């Protein structure tokens, strides 16, 4: 019988890479998307997965920033897949912005999506796996911003750090049931082409910055969704059966020297090495 995996935010980016890889590994899949655009991408992915890998594949709309939605998705996945061996919490928004420039609504949105939904989904999956004696896996997709400080990411970086810390306790609490819980922390991953970014209304400066970012990275390339998906596949496999409570950083060493992820600006207000801006 195929193993069963639930993935949040599987419609595109890193999540889509994870869906594809797990389907290739022979998992039946249930994943989420949130937007109208995501619906189109999700439907195309379901079709691709069913045709290419002959596994079950379901997609569900879920606004995971809303209370109750994460748990509901995990329950739905468990019933429709008739089991749950793996939960990958990935859906999130990389809102890297100074907290001084965020309104409270955005702050609450990010806390609920990038932190709360992970914990609630993992809590539900742990309960289901424990009650049903499934020696399953839970994986959080965090970020290398969770392991060291960068300017302008009090909230995003803080939430990602919280996930890395929280998974350690999930690992302890669920270990007696044979359930493993781990984090994967990606560095800069190219999830959109320049053209796709343009279509989404991203400004030319930002696109140019991203196009040139690889030059500043130790391995001199951006990461890909496949880089992260390969790690998910390994962590969920029996080859990793003694790995739990770990955080696997996959960033091509980007976070080691602490180099800025953004190109230094010429603007006098920015100090060159890390884009510090005088606010007052
Ligand atoms: N890309 C990177 O460089 C990078 C680096 C480190 C960590 N990460 C982390 O990796 C994860 C995936 O990032 P990504 O770059 O692959 O993002 P992405 O391409 O923008 O995809 C995000 C996924 O999350 C879903 N999503 C967005 N808002 C949601 C909401 N309110 N409720 C439910 N689902 C929602 C999206 O669905 P729709 O498309 O339908 O909205 C999509 O499926 C995130 O947790 C991110 O923080 C990314």
UniProtKB/TrEMBL annotation:
Keywords: Oxidoreductase. It holds the Pfam family adh_short_C2. GO terms for biological process: bile acid metabolic process. It comes from the Bacteria. It comes from Mediterraneibacter hominis. Belongs to the short-chain dehydrogenases/reductases (SDR) family. CDD domains: SDR_c. GO terms for molecular function: oxidoreductase activity. InterPro entries: NAD(P)-bd_dom_sf, SDR_fam. This is SDR family oxidoreductase.
């Amino acid at each position: 019988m195929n193993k069963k995996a639930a993935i949040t935010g599987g419609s595109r980016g890193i999540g889509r890479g994870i869906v594809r890889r797990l389907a290739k590994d022979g998992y039946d899949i249930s994943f989420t998307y949130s937007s109208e655009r995501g619906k189109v991408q999700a439907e195309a992915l379901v079709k691709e997965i069913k045709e290419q890998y002959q596994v079950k594949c379901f997609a569900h709309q879920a606004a995971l920033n809303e209370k109750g939605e994460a748990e509901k998705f995990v329950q739905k996945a468990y019933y429709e897949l008739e089991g749950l061996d793996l939960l990958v919490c990935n859906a999130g928004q990389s809102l890297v912005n100074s907290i001084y420039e965020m309104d409270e609504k955005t702050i609450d949105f990010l806390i609920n999506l990038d932190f709360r939904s992970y914990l609630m989904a993992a809590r539900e999956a742990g309960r289901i796996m424990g009650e049903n004696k499934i020696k399953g896996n839970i994986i959080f997709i965090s970020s290398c911003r969770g392991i060291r400080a960068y300017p302008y990411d009090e909230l995003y970086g803080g939430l990602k750090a919280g996930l890395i810390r929280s998974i350690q306790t999930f690992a302890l609490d669920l270990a007696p049931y044979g359930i493993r819980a781990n984090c994967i922390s990606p560095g800069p991953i190219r999830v959109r082409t320049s053209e796709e970014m343009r279509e989404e209304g991203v400004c030319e400066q930002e696109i140019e910055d991203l196009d040139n970012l690889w030059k500043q990275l130790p391995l001199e390339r951006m990461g890909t969704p496949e880089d992260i998906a390969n790690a998910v596949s390994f962590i969920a496999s029996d080859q990793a059966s003694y790995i739990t409570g770990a955080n696997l950083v996959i960033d091509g060493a980007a976070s080691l020297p602490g180099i800025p992820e953004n190109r230094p600006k010429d603007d006098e207000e920015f100090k060159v090495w890390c884009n510090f801006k005088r606010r007052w």
